[in-house]
Design goal:
The structure holds four protein chains of four kinds. By secondary structure, chain A is an alpha/beta fold. Chain A has helices at 47-54, 77-83, 100-108, 116-120, 124-143, 159-172, 189-206, 217-223, 241-245, 248-255; strands at 9-18, 21-31, 36-40, 62-67, 70-71, 85-87, 177-181, 209-213, 226-231, 234-239. In chain A, strands 6-7-8-3-9-10 form a six-stranded mixed β-sheet, sandwiched between helices. In chain A, strands 2-1-4-5 form a four-stranded antiparallel β-sheet, covered by helices on one side. Chain B is built from eleven helices and two strands, in the order ααααββααααααα. In chain B, a hairpin with a 2-residue loop joins β1 (146-149) and β2. In chain B, α1 packs parallel to α5 (156-178). Helices cover 73% and strands 2% of the residues of chain C. In chain C, α3 packs parallel to α7 (186-205), α5 (105-128) packs antiparallel against α10 and α13 crosses α17. Chain D folds into two domains: 20-177 and 312-384, Rossmann fold (3-Layer(aba) Sandwich); 180-307 and 395-414, Rossmann fold. The longest helix of chain D has 30 residues, at 2-31. Classes of the chains: A alpha/beta, B mainly alpha, C mainly alpha, D alpha/beta. Chains C and D meet through α3, α4, α5, β1 and α10 of C and α1, β2, α3, α4 and α6 of D.
């Protein structure tokens, strides 16, 4: 059954050069709907650059990115987000001065139907829509255990909660594909345990497709169903966790010497 | 309505352009160096230039007015006083206004810079003579005679300004590329935090940068005021400052040769506008160039754009 | 929380009730404006009217600039340019087409306002475009340049052969509007100010406002969340410019002439100062700063020269005082629990002093506008002092500030007379006096720098004015003291 | 949806441009008769104000004065304040009028039109002055004149030489000559006395005064048969004029007319030498400051300019004024604005002696009736157009100061 499914995101021969440096070289992989896909590799392997190309921050030098069958190369990030790809950032990027609730409402903003004029004149439709966004956001916050902090300034949250809020904000755009850039970075084991559970739950309860960059091998191996390994911009391995775990090339890339 | 220009006319205008460009370059260097290390547009830089001009005026007309000094020596003294005074002022500005804001958002720093600029302009009015506005006496400028090159005329002072500028720039170039402090400066401008981690005393580098940049602006102020002999006011540096900033952006801000090139281009463009009979739009031209360059090539002519997510 | 408030409003009013409320509030606004126009204005002198007009115009300009600078985080320093475009468009239209018999004045004004708003909005669109590629200081200098280009161009449009398209805007002299075309009224500007504030406030109450705010907070993240930052940045410029343009039209039709010298860089700087001082993103902050800075500027216009000695004494004392405060010793002493009574006495005495000054002010010959403004400031001081009666625990920030100023002034008076007696100083300074205008600007500049050093978000920060906010903000000191204790 | 909004924005912008386009088309149609003035305010006759203005109560009569005590025009503004105060002090020392003393209330305009308007409104609305004296520059006088005309308080401008200022209405007068006369007189002087035929002009585009003066000069000079070979521009505050001067040089003029203020004329003179343009310079009363000598260097020597009077004139009014000014302020007036403000204030004070009731309306009529006024800047009448009809004194710049060379009697220049 799974083999016949069309991939939600398919990446073909993706390459990007910055001047003389080839940051990502000829990477290809497919992500199927509801898959938990991992992208790993040592520092500077080009993982975040891949994310930036998928979300439209960088334009690839060569290669193709197809999302739900159509190319998304050259689209601006907001349009890609509107198509259904949401992301989090390696170094957390929250709207610091806004409250936790407001952060998530911004995520829901994509679904707006009212015009700016309605908002400027505060017509009932605008009020209604805003309150709908607010209640949808509250629901999401509850799911991520942040409901009691709804009124806190997001910059005042502790680190782990900021990470969760960022995921909640990304989820608020109701994405078809969620990109998580090192969600467990800087978390203690207990926190990353919780995070793993949340990520799994997203997949199991909502059928959320997730592409994830992670350093913490425990997290990656624990949650991902399929993994791509990058090293110096090139793809060195691809497959289920068990296969990756025993791949000599991966071990070499991580440990720096052949086993 | 284009004024008809002969070849001599054009060559003559070209010379005026270079002279103006030399002054812009001196100011632009300060902008570009400070931006390089601090990523801060030091709005007060034009006002430092103004103070340089005033110091030159006070040196020759007030402090040394009664002393019989050989005229050439007087010019050297004026230059040194302006440079030292401005270096000191730059140091003070950095110490009082910018250092406490090292980690503040950039907009706050920008506003602070505007505040400092306004402060120098208006507080300067309390100390400097503004009414009637002073101007440097003609007798101070011993290089006012002309050199005739065919039908072209070059004022000796223009030549002196150019030579001094080139010498100062060569010194700067040597300093930045050949000395340890210069290397540290480049390191800081490349990556502030890493440089700090590598054991470079960032504060010291910034201090030196402000020192040199301000001294150059002071030299520019002294030379412009002496050769043109214009009445001084505390707003004397406003427009040159803005134009020099545009020059720095044009050449790619943070880039020293770029600043010089940018200054020359700016001055040429301005002179060309005047030469073609549209002198009433001169001040607009600087900004039109700026907007054009920022839209087409935000990094400037020699700069590169890098953006990290 | 504004959003919760919005949600609550939604629950409270069904749409039928909503329209009722909306109509009533508009009627109330028009009613107040009419009352104002027909009951108060006839008793006002032209100077009182001028003060109100200037203050309200600058308040609305500051609020509209706040939408660009504070809310969307795009640093624009060319707001005088938009103001100018509106003024000139309106003035030119009226000069060319105005005919008393064609249509009633208010209809004509409305038409001209539309013209001015469209032209300014268009300029805002053009200026907004660079903001797509530029950030922070680059954008600042480009917008500054835009204002200057505009001034130079208008300056040269005198219908001569050096003007573009042979346009005649009166050149550097003025575009002198025909007599009888001064059709703008105080009430119009009042209504316009309310509308400007309402538009910005409405925006911030809805999700649209959050989109603007998110761009200020983090552009990359906003874009990744699906917000077309380009569109919103340009929109902010367009709305802000259109509002500034309307202010320009109204001011031009109140003055009867427009001249490029009234729209120089200084005006843009002043507006930026207002937004920054008031608090980036705070509507009330911008409006209050606009009103108070404009009135302050006006009230200090003809102040006699300040003796240099007095100024220097004050500066020396202030620096020493600040140095002592910075060491922390005095601050701790001032806030020691044991000194609660002393603090209360000092605070109340300062308050009494201010009250006395306001009382004296009411008995001098001065515009009623200044008197009212001063009284309001007094009320603000009183409220701040008594906010959450924290004087007992620690001096509130504001009280701290006022007390510091009072102490500095008190010490500097004897010092000034001592200075007078020093022979060296006598020789250096002598009887020099300083121009009040220069001193005022120098103080403005210092205040700007200090504001940035101490409170980089401006006085109100990102908050709106509310009494509870006032208490929280001024009483903040006590919380930190409690926390450290 | 998004597209439509942007499109509609464009459409409305184009529409707006069209409106403006129509506007300038229409404007140039009816504006052709009065080029250089703003829009359609060409007044044929001077309307008298309908409002009654203020009236004096008690023993003091308040006269207001607006002056640029700060900003770009500070040198002139400060002098005008001193001159006005001197006139009032002398008047009060001589016993005032009818047992009443005059109080001069001075408001600063910061050299800005907007603040000039505010200052005038304060004087008229708050201080209830009977008349206003002031502003040295045309640009700052216009808004003040508008206010005064509206409320019916007479205003006597000090140095506003631009023609359209008094066309605001019957309440506006001035103590100085107009650019109309000044420009024509200098054209006449250049053509007849200096025998110049090909003249180049340098105009300060930022100054209404300079553009107005250049306009008249051009017309007058061309009507006499002279030729304007080139007109170049700058803005006050500029410091580099060599490109413009070099352009002028290539046209081989035999004279250079600089209509700007001395602050720029000085450097222009200096750079004129550097460029190798060796022709006489001449200009208007904006040159009048001894600072010209230090900023102009040797280039300015031999230049001519029109002025209202000169400190060294032998007329008793001048001698007495300079003596009293020196006694009160420790130095002779640095610019002609001291004397002009003195005259302007005196016109008001003389009129005060003639009125029966102390109110603005009467005062206005009496100011309009000023005939044979013996001022420092000459003996003159106030004409029906509100302008002072008085001669011009042409001064030459010499090494040690300005020397009067010719007096040109008042005449009316028809364009």
């Amino acid at each position: 059954m799974k083999e016949t499914q069309t991939p939600i995101l398919s990446i073909e021969n993706l390459t990007i050069r910055f001047g003389g440096l080839v940051a990502v070289n000829d990477v290809s992989f497919d992500i199927l709907p509801s898959e938990l896909f991992g992208l790993i590799g040592p520092n500077g392997a080009g993982k975040t650059t891949c994310f930036n190309m998928i979300t439209g921050v960088y334009r690839p030098t060569a290669g193709e990115i197809r999302f739900q069958g159509s190319s998304i190369i050259g689209l601006r990030p907001s349009l890609i987000a509107a198509r259904g790809i949401a992301r989090t950032f390696q170094n957390i990027r929250l709207f610091g001065a806004l409250s936790v609730l407001e952060n998530v409402i911004v995520g829901g903003f994509l679904r707006r139907k009212t015009t700016l004029f309605e908002s400027m004149t505060l017509l009932p439709s605008a009020i209604k829509e805003t309150s709908q966004f607010a209640s949808a956001a509250m629901a999401l916050l509850e799911m991520f255990d942040l409901a009691d902090l709804a009124d806190t300034r997001s910059a005042d949250l502790p680190y782990g909660k900021q990470r969760r809020l960022e995921i909640a904000r990304a989820m608020a755009t109701s994405p078809r594909l969620l990109l998580l850039d090192e969600p467990a970075a800087g978390m203690n084991p207990q926190e990353s345990e919780e995070l793993m559970r949340d990520i799994k739950r997203l997949r199991d309860e909502f059928g959320q497709t997730i592409l994830l960059i992670e350093h913490d091998m425990k997290v990656v191996m624990g949650v991902c169903e399929k993994i791509v390994v990058l090293d110096y911009g090139a793809e060195i391995a691809q497959g289920p966790p068990e296969k990756i775990r025993n791949d000599p090339k991966v071990i070499e890339a991580y440990l720096g010497e052949p086993v | 309505m284009l004024a008809t220009l002969s070849f001599e006319g054009l060559a003559q205008q070209f010379i005026y352009g270079i002279q103006l460009g030399a002054i812009y370059a001196l100011i632009a260097l300060g902008y570009t160096m400070v931006y390089g290390v601090l990523k801060l547009i030091n709005f007060a830089h034009g006002d430092v230039y103004m103070v340089g001009a005033y110091l030159a005026y006070y040196t020759c007309s007030v402090w040394l007015a009664g002393v019989a000094v050989e005229p050439h020596l007087m010019l050297v003294i004026m230059l040194l006083v302006s440079m030292c005074g401005c270096a000191l002022l730059g140091l003070l500005i950095e110490r009082i206004a910018y250092r406490p804001l090292r980690s503040a958002p950039r907009i706050s720093v920008l506003i602070t810079a505007i505040g400092v600029s306004l402060f120098i302009e208006y507080a300067g009015k309390l100390f400097f003579q503004t009414s009637p506005q002073p101007s440097i006496k003609e007798s101070v400028n011993v290089f006012k005679d002309q050199i005739h090159l065919g039908r072209l005329e070059i004022a000796q002072s223009a030549l002196i300004v150019l030579i001094t500028t080139v010498v100062l720039m060569c010194l700067l170039w040597y300093f930045v590329t050949r000395t340890a402090m210069g290397r540290a400066m480049r390191a800081v401008s490349h990556d502030f935090n890493t440089a700090a981690l590598m054991g470079i005393s960032v504060d010291k580098v910034i201090t030196i940068t402000f020192l040199i940049g301000s001294a150059l602006a002071g030299a520019g102020g002294m030379m412009q005021a002496t050769s043109v002999g214009t009445p001084l006011s505390t707003f004397y540096g406003l427009m040159p400052g803005v134009k020099a900033f545009v020059a720095a952006v044009l050449g790619g801000i943070g880039n020293i040769p770029g600043a010089v090139t940018g200054a020359m281009i700016m001055a040429m463009a301005e002179t060309a506008v005047k030469a073609f009979g549209y002198s009433n739009y001169t001040d607009a031209v600087a900004f039109i160039i700026l907007i054009g360059i920022l839209l087409l090539r935000p990094g400037g002519l020699f700069g590169a754009v890098t953006e990290k997510v | 929380m504004p959003l919760e408030a919005a949600a609550l409003t939604h629950q409270r009013f069904s749409s039928g009730k909503f329209w009722l409320v909306r109509i009533v509030s508009i009627a109330l606004l028009v009613g107040i404006a009419c009352l104002f126009q027909f009951a108060a204005v006839p008793h006002m002198g032209i100077y009182d009217k001028r003060l109100l007009i200037s203050a309200m115009t600058f308040a609305s300009l500051a609020v509209s600039l706040n939408l660009i600078n504070g809310v969307t985080g795009q640093f624009s320093m060319g707001h005088a340019g938009f103001y100018m475009i509106g003024a000139y468009t309106g003035a030119k239209l009226t000069t060319t087409f105005y005919d008393r018999h064609l249509m009633p004045d208010y209809a004509w004004l409305l038409a001209v306002i539309c013209g001015g708003a469209v032209m300014s909005a268009f300029a805002g669109f053009i200026v907004g475009l660079p903001s797509l590629r530029l950030r922070g200081d680059y954008l600042a200098i480009v917008t500054l340049g835009f204002g200057e280009i505009l001034r130079v161009v208008v300056n040269n449009q005198d219908g001569g052969d050096k003007s573009l398209f042979g346009l005649n805007l009166g050149g550097s002299y003025a575009l002198d509007m025909p007599r009888g075309s001064r059709i703008s009224e105080l009430a119009y500007i009042f209504v316009f100010l309310v509308i400007t504030i309402a538009i910005c406030r409405n925006l911030l109450k809805t999700a649209h406002g959050l989109a603007f705010l998110s761009i200020r907070e983090d552009e990359t993240a906003a874009e990744a969340t699906g917000i077309n930052t380009t569109k919103f940045k340009v929109t902010a410029f367009v709305i802000g410019a259109a509002l500034a343009g309307i202010a320009g039209v109204l001011m031009a039709h109140y003055n009867g002439s427009v001249t490029p010298n009234d729209y120089t860089m200084d005006v843009s700087f002043l507006l930026v100062t207002m937004v920054v001082m008031g608090g980036t993103g705070s509507i009330t902050g911008a409006a209050l700063a606009g009103i108070s800075l404009k009135l302050l500027e006006e009230s200090l216009r003809s102040v006699p020269d300040i003796p240099a000695v007095n100024l220097w004494a004050a500066v020396v004392v202030a620096i020493l005082f600040a140095a002592v405060l910075k060491r922390g010793g005095l601050g701790r002493v001032l806030n020691a629990p044991a000194l609660a009574v002393v603090r209360i006495v000092i605070a109340e005495l300062t308050l009494l002093l201010i009250a006395y000054m306001v009382f004296k002010l009411w008995h001098t010959q001065m515009s009623i506008v200044f008197k009212v403004a001063a009284s309001l400031v007094f009320l603000g001081c009183a409220a701040a002092f008594h906010a959450r009666d924290n004087v007992r625990k620690a001096l509130p920030t504001f009280g701290y500030l006022v007390t510091c100023v009072a102490v500095v002034l008190l010490i500097s008076i004897p010092l000034a007379s001592a200075f007078h007696k020093l022979p060296l100083l006598q020789k250096l300074i002598g009887d020099t006096t300083y121009k009040a205008t220069d001193v005022r600007w120098a103080f403005f500049a210092t205040a700007l720098v200090i504001t940035m050093l101490v409170r980089s978000q401006g006085l109100f920060g990102h908050h709106e004015f509310s009494w509870s906010f006032l208490g929280r903000s001024f009483g903040k000191r006590s919380e930190t003291v409690e926390a450290s204790a | 949806m998004k597209m439509t909004r942007i499109t509609s924005l464009w459409i409305s912008a184009v529409f707006g441009l069209m409106i403006l386009g129509c506007g300038c088309g229409g404007g140039s149609k009816d504006g052709s008769s009065n080029e250089g003035t703003g829009g359609g305010t060409a007044l044929k006759g001077r309307e008298l104000p309908t409002e009654p203005g203020n009236s004096a109560e008690g023993d003091t009569i308040k006269i207001g004065m607006i002056a640029s005590l700060n900003g770009e025009q500070q040198p002139w503004g400060v002098d005008s304040q001193k001159g006005g105060q001197l006139a009032v002090d002398e008047f009060n020392a001589a016993g005032g009028v009818n047992g009443k003393k005059v109080e001069l209330i001075v408001e600063d305009t910061n050299s800005k039109p907007e603040q000039s308007k505010t200052a005038t409104e304060k004087l008229v609305g708050e201080d209830k002055v009977l008349a206003v004296v002031g502003e040295v520059s045309s640009g700052n006088t216009l808004p003040a004149a508008k206010v005064c005309q509206e409320v019916g308080v007479p205003i006597v401008a000090v140095g506003a030489t631009r023609i359209d200022v008094t066309q605001q209405g019957g309440a506006v007068f001035r103590a100085c000559f107009t650019d109309d006369f000044q420009g024509a007189a200098m054209a006449k002087f250049a053509y007849e006395d200096l025998k110049l035929r090909n003249v180049a002009m340098l105009t300060d585009k930022k100054l209404p005064y300079s553009t107005g003066l250049s306009d008249v000069f051009r017309k007058a000079f061309e009507s006499m048969g002279g030729k304007i070979v080139d007109e170049e521009f700058y803005e006050s505050g500029n410091i580099d004029f060599k490109p413009q001067l070099s352009n002028i040089k290539s046209k081989n003029p035999d004279g250079l007319f600089c209509s700007g203020y001395f602050t720029e004329v000085g450097p222009i003179a200096r750079q004129k030498e550097a460029v190798g343009l060796n022709v006489p310079m001449f200009g208007g009363d904006g040159w009048d400051s001894t600072q010209l000598l230090s900023s102009g260097g040797s280039g300015i020597i031999g230049g001519y300019f029109a002025n209202h009077y000169h400190n060294s004139e032998k007329r008793p009014e001048v001698q007495e004024f300079v003596k009293n000014f020196q006694a009160k302020y420790g130095a002779p007036p640095a610019t002609a604005m001291g004397a002009l403000a003195y005259d302007a204030t005196k016109i008001v004070l003389e009129a005060l002696k003639r009125v029966k009731e102390y109110n603005s309306k009467e005062l206005l009529t009496e100011i309009a009736n000023t005939k044979g006024f013996h001022g420092v800047s000459g003996t003159f009448d106030i004409g029906p157009d509100g302008n002072a009809q008085k001669p011009i004194l042409v001064l030459q710049v010499q090494k040690n100061g300005f020397v009067p060379v010719k007096q040109i009697p008042f005449f009316v220049f028809q364009k």
